[in-house]
Write the structure tokens for this entry.
Amino acid sequence: MEIKVLGSGCAKCKTLEKVTREAVEELKLDATIEKIEDIQKIVEYGVMMTPALVVDGEVVVKGRVPKLDEVKTILNK
Amino acid sequence: MITYLKKNIIYITILAVAWVVFYKYLSPITDFIIDDVFRLEAGKHLTETLRFFIFEVPKVFLLLVLIIFIVGIVRSYFSAEKTRKVLKGKSLFTGNIMAALLGIVTPFCSCSAIPLFLGFVEAGIPIGITFSFLIAAPMINEIAVVLLIGLFGWKVTLIYVLTGLTVAILSGWLIGVFKLEKYVADWVFKAKSNNQDISEEKVSFEERIKLGYTSVKEIVGKIWIYILIGIAVGAGAHGYVPEDFLSELMGKAHWYSVPLAILIGIPLYSNAAGVIPIVSVLIEKGVTLGTALAFMMSVVGLSLPEIIILKKVLKIQLIAIFVGVVAVGIIIVGYILNLIY
């Protein structure tokens, strides 16, 4: 699984990255997590509100920080 | 069986009643605490400072919780994507008005300013209309409205919102009229996204209520300390600083007080929560309303950090024009309000 956290470095973006790492760890997933801070790359995903969560190339969350449980549900799909 | 929604409605009703009762009796409760529990002598500096503090803190927090909750629900109906769709293909001026209005309700954080700008440009929205959005969004929001109502009442709040909207609409319109697209950084027009249409997440009404709760928790958790400090400073000034302390420097008599207030405001950066208590002190100590609101608009709407962020997508000429146009707009607002009041 390929997970990307999009965000230019604001507090919320860091929280999302942390939550995502926790979720992956708890689910013991085989996944790579990459933080993308380059605005041009963020825009390539069509995202206008950061932070956003991208799983295998698909934007699943944008503009908010979901709770740990929600991230786990999303990643389990 | 009681559904989750019904349970929520019951909770909300109870909370709403408690809210109204508490808000209504705040003044007698405060007087009771000050005069009867602590038995402080009325009229003394310390007494009146404490009275102000004990009255203002719960009042501002009550308003804050109520309005953030409502705005949290309202906001869940809006998103940057929907706003972009609405603004697409709109003509100048109409587009500017809608952009400024949508700037109030669309969820927005200044750290998203650049991706949002790029997203708008990509959809072919003229930059003038985008600017109306970007000027209105940080300047007019629920926190500003709550604090203005709490400290100055409805009339001043309405004046702030209406003049703020006017500045956002006209500044964006002017930038649009002069077709300043050439001053946008070249790479901006090349940035292309792969998936234009991200499907909207379906949200039930229950979830919207939850979003309301969440935004209260999030925002109050973030700004409560500024508000406490702000009100404490305000309370201290209320009791101790002489009435006309600042009127010498920034009173009505001086033509330069409005531009001076704006100049001081630009390098200062704060959200509405931080600046409004200061504004209340300014007004109480003799600064005129127009000057004080101009100062606030300048602090919230024009800021160095924002200018530095915008530098990534705008050439220096356009940044200068943007700051100049908005500053002139705020100056005019300041003068007009000073004339009326």
